[in-house]
Amino acid sequence: MSNFMKLIWNEQIKLYAKKATWVMFAVILVIAIGGGLITKFFGTESDFKEYGDNWQTELQAENEQLMAEMADDEFAGFTNEFIIAENNYHLENNIKPQPYDGWEYVLDNSFLTSVISLFTIIVAAGIISNEFKWGTIKLLLIRPISRTKILFSKYVSVLIFALTLLVFLLLSSWLVGALLFGLNGLNPMVVQDMMPGYAHNDVLGEIAKSYGFSIVTLVMMATFAFMISAIFRSSGMAIGLAIFLMMAGNTIVAFLSQYEWSKFILFANTNLEQYTNGMEPTIPGMSMTFSIIVLLVYFAIFIGAAWAAFTKRDVAGN
Amino acid sequence: MSKPAMQLVNLKKTIGNKPIIKGLDFEIRAGEVFGFLGPNGAGKTTTIRMMVGLIDITEGDVLIEGKSIKTDFKGAIQHVGAIVENPEMYPFLSGWKNLKQYARMVEGVTDERIKEVVSLVGLEKAIHEKAGRYSLGMRQRLGIAQALLHGPSILILDEPTNGLDPSGIREIRKYIRNLAEKENVAVIVSSHLLTEIELMCDRIGVIKNGELIAIEEVQTVEHEEALKEVYIEVEPMETAKVYLDSHLENGVGVGSKELSMSVKREEIPQILKNLMEQGISIYGVRVLQATLEDKFFDLIGENSIE
Ligand SMILES: Nc1ncnc2c1ncn2[C@@H]1O[C@H](COP(=O)(O)OP(=O)(O)OP(=O)(O)O)[C@@H](O)[C@H]1O
Ligand SMILES: [Mg+2]
């Protein structure tokens, strides 16, 4: 094993020697199972319906029944309208509806990447500051290894941890989904509500897209927490700031969107999905390229600041 | 005299505007145990932090096996094993796993080597327990094991006897002597207690307020030639004083009950015999062992923290 790999190995051992890390995996598993059970037993009935060869007739009958319900009960209108619109999309495009399955469950669980972001922030915030807290930083820095290498082994370890959580989320969602709902083949097509309109796409592509876009926020916030941890050597501060900004990010952008410079705010750019599917960007004049450049600049600043703080400063006190 | 394992060259550290270390110049040779002595706040830990590159050197340099810690950090630090301040460990890992962490950070430390070091510091029984449950003494041992893993030629121990019981201190002392004598390791031991390190050191450097105020060889062999303070309780004192004044070149001092004189060890029996022949009664004789402690206490004086 190369020197750098051994450092990463060391970091992973320290990480998994702590109970808190296992709790994070347990939380994801519990949410995946719980979410599956809730969907199974409280989900919309029509989602699970299996249609026969005459599915067109079945859909039309269903629509008529829904309309009738709406005439009787004005409160039924809200959900029923959605179902009717979706049914019409199937009819117009000649797509046979398929029952909800494990793949769709994986796709629906992509919102859990925000939980992964949270956990990754916690790990990123602690990976440097804990060494200071334990006093072990002194033993780490008196080896024939440059501080730069130690810093990056820690950063890469954080990314590996995030990736591990992500794979764990995908696998557990897929397993729970497959057990509870079954699978419609290896890579079925799914109809998605694009608000407005509907789209018909293969599920693997959609999963890759929705998890992929969420990784941007994850990496940026983890890097931010890592930087704060390297500068202030305190995990509490790093966790607090990163989580606050992650939660308040969109509000901050909305609040400042009247100003021209607000498009340079990190959070105005983390959602790259805003440029897909013909959606309007948050602030006019922004583009995918613009956002990627802004993100790269922030990333470089975060890493640069962490590096400067970690390699240049005295390790004294405590 | 062997070549220096470590050299401090006009070493200075200023934090803010406050000069903490004000120009240290000394060297430590291979195979010697060097005691770094000074009262609390004298700057021992600060100096050690500079020796191992944990803090920047404001001025001057530290050369380890001829390599500058400033410009050739890896080349210099690979010869060093150290404990700085307290022996801190990952509390959630076992002693063994703690050592494995450090073993992975250098080339060529095998599991056999780790076992060897563990048995050297006598930690075999507890090595698979979590380090968080270790007593201070056990952590101190694990700290030393950690510092020795890669077979360094320079060992730096900041207050290694801190928290050890007397038998623990004796063991560490024996062990440190062994390393220096058998493996030719240069050992630097800091302490604020002279009595603790005078028994294991070959030389002692005294630091106070960031300045080196003395470097002394520790005399392990009794010198026959050295003058000793001898106190004699005699009756009648006046007669004895007159007699001794005329026979000793340094003369005698008069205390309340005793006469004091500086003489060589071999002269003592003759002096006593002569006094008795003069009809003087001798009630007691004591020879003062001038310890290093007296000497250094004079040097250090009041421990005033600037
Ligand atoms: N980061 C710092 N900022 C300001 N002053 C400092 C800093 N670190 C150390 N000092 C000062 O430097 C002096 C030397 O401290 P140092 O820890 O080196 O002493 P020491 O000889 O190891 O003492 P002890 O026997 O108590 O361990 C002290 O007066 C301390 O107040
Ligand atoms: Mg100290």
List the helices and strands and how they pair.
The complex is a heterodimer of chains A (318) and B (306).
Chain A: H1 3-16, H2 19-42, H3 45-48, H4 55-72, H5 77-93, H6 102-108, H7 113-134, H8 137-140, H9 147-181, E1 189-193, E2 198-202, H10 203-232, H11 235-256, H12 266-269, H13 288-312
Helix pairs in contact in A: 1-9, 2-9, 4-5, 6-9, 6-10, 7-9, 7-10, 7-11, 9-10, 10-11, 10-13
Chain B: E1 4-15, E2 18-29, E3 33-37, H1 44-51, E4 59-64, E5 67-68, H2 73-77, E6 80-83, H3 95-103, H4 111-120, H5 136-148, E7 154-158, H6 166-183, E8 186-191, H7 194-198, E9 203-208, E10 211-217, E11 227-235, H8 237-247, E12 253-254, E13 258-264, H9 268-277, E14 281-288, H10 292-300
Parallel strand pairs in B: 3-8, 3-9, 6-7, 7-8
Antiparallel strand pairs in B: 1-2, 1-4, 4-5, 9-10, 11-13, 11-14, 12-13
The structure holds adenosine-5'-triphosphate and magnesium ion.
Adenosine-5'-triphosphate binds at residues 15, 20, 38, 40-46, 192, 305 of chain B.
